[in-house]
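Table S2 (text version). Query chain:
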Amino acid sequence: MKAMILAAGLGTRLKPFTDKHPKALAMVNGKSLLQRNIEYLQKIGITEVLVNVHHFADQIIDAVTNSNGWGSTVTISDETDAVLETGGGLKKAAWYFGNETSFLLINADILTNLDLDALVAQHTNTGALATLAVSIRESSRYFLFDEAGKLCGWKNQNTGEYKPAHLTDDSTSHMQTKAFSGIQVIDTKLLPLMQREGKFSMVDVYLDLCATHTILAYDHTGATLLDVGKPESLALAATLFV
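Corresponding structure-token output:
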């Protein structure tokens, strides 16, 4: 199995570090977020990784080159002309997964100890088009799942917005609300189904497809998960990840 690490974001919440560096190279106890995620993937035998780059792309390329990929074979997907977000970035890199049945897609700024083997095993056993790592935690945005764990929609808690737009408080009252963790296993059959162009999010891809395809939750509630998006979260990460 191969993986893609999403590392092209501007990292505006992590200023002032990201005024001069890419977020993926923020350090936690002497290791960058990118190195930590590459080594995290190695724990389940994934050593072929594609990393997309945009913001200070040259710094990521140099770090990968100078470290020999931290023991993995790392391929770069160059988005320096335009950042494409999570969905557009994957679509540009779809060629990389041509010989795969499924692959992992993760955000570079997430640190976690969730069981990747269990996530992959659930995906394989169910035959889902995609399996999304989620947990029960406080968030401003939630995926909505039915009793079987199948994705049905999305809600912004702050604005009350639903996707798809026909959903309402009444129609979703029986659904489970879970926060997305930025880690997912995707069947390569999804790639040709991505109809959007340019800059777009994987969240919208999943919402485009969930009515006609099986997209399932993998609930890792209880595992350590940290979105390393702000300076204070870097300090917290240093206490949680040695």
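Notes on Table S2: The chain has six helices and 14 strands. The chain has one domain: 2-240.
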